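Hey,

Quick one before I head out. I ran the complex with magnesium ion overnight. Inputs first:
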Amino acid sequence: MNFWLRPLAIVLGLGFFAMLFGMGRTPSGWMLFALGLIGYLAYNLRQLKNLSDWLADESRPPMSSTGVWGDVLYRLGRLLKSRQGAQQKAMADLEQMLEATRNLPDGVVILDDEQRIVWLNVAAEGMLGLSPSRDIGQFVLYLLRNTRFSAWLASQDYARPLVLESPSARDRTLSLQIVPLPRRQKMLLARDITELTRVEAMRRDFVANVSHELRTPITVIVGFLETFDDMPEADPKQFRKHIPLMREQSNRIHRLVDDLLTLARLESEPDTRDEQVDIPALAARLADEARTMSQGRHQVRLQLDSRERLQGNGQELYSALANLVSNAVRYTPAGGVITLRWGRVDSGGAEFAVTDTGEGIEAQHIPRLTERFYRVDRGRSRSTGGTGLGLAIVKHILQRHQGRLRIESVVGKGSTFIACFPAERVMPGAVVPAPESPSAEA
Ligand SMILES: Nc1ncnc2c1ncn2[C@@H]1O[C@H](COP(=O)(O)OP(=O)(O)O)[C@@H](O)[C@H]1O
Ligand SMILES: [Mg+2]
């Protein structure tokens, strides 16, 4: 309403003045009215031109005015400002999205409708061996030359990802996927699945190994049972003769299942119990156990260079160190010497070392000894009651104590297995009289 009032007031005002000058009777009254109207029209046309110029070039300072024009300009200015704000926000959001995509750990390549590269992120450069400065605008098939990739891209069926060796690093495995985009563009996604593939292969190997290890003793036991079943009249003495072998095979299954359960527990229990473990007392107990196990075939020595205790899980530490000691006994021929030593090292940490004068280990086997079921001599390990899981358990337990296993060995001379612990785990010892050794059993 206000909008019409002001122009109406101006026209009526002009008429009023014209009337005062005798409008209708003298020509000068009409002239004055017409001149007033022309002036008002000219003013409006000028404002309209200014507005048109300003709209053509938004960088000019906004025009200011009063009256009807003031209202119009104020509303227009407000509209433009809010539109500009929304535009700026959209641009900032887009830039943020692009920046995130650029730094995504997965490779992203945008292809146009003819499969030429439009854009790619940093990860795609490394994984696919592409370079933005060189390869944008190129056909992707010329750059990633691989028959399986070409066939997959041509198939138009991208429901299943394509697993491919990385063109830039042969030891990496990639999983490629295609996501359709508007305007017949495509997004090629590349994910590095090397680690996943490795874990999957390890899992398969592990299951195969466990099945294989269990099959032999089970076959032996089942074989005996079937034979007895076939001979219902057989002499019980005949039967008893085979019991020791059956018991040996059952023990083997038992040991294997125990070790598997230990490993599973170590993997599933995130944290280790914390107590002060009296390693000197534990070492003395292990030396006694070694003597029992050796049955006089070896000389067992105990060398305690320090009375330090260890912050950790007594049961786990017992299990790890007992594994090292039992290996030394089992892999050292009669007449050998086995030494258990506990002492500080320069770094502030401490070491538990088991040295034997046994057969030794060739250098190429050493890095693999802690792998599950890895054995230098499978037959020898089995015949002495080994499962091939002992050192894998040791490694796990030491890792849970921020420690590590070091192995030194000379073929024909002997080996030293050293459990190294960091300074944070070492506690001053000999404050309390030696308590009972940990309650754990191997
Ligand atoms: N003290 C040692 N002397 C020689 N070889 C050893 C010794 N300790 C371990 N090994 C080798 O490392 C392999 C893996 O050890 P481990 O994991 O304890 O399995 P195992 O059940 O066979 O003892 C053994 O099979 C053996 O070949
Ligand atoms: Mg062992």
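The domain at 103-192 is CATH 3.30.450.20 (Beta-Lactamase).

Talk tomorrow,
K.
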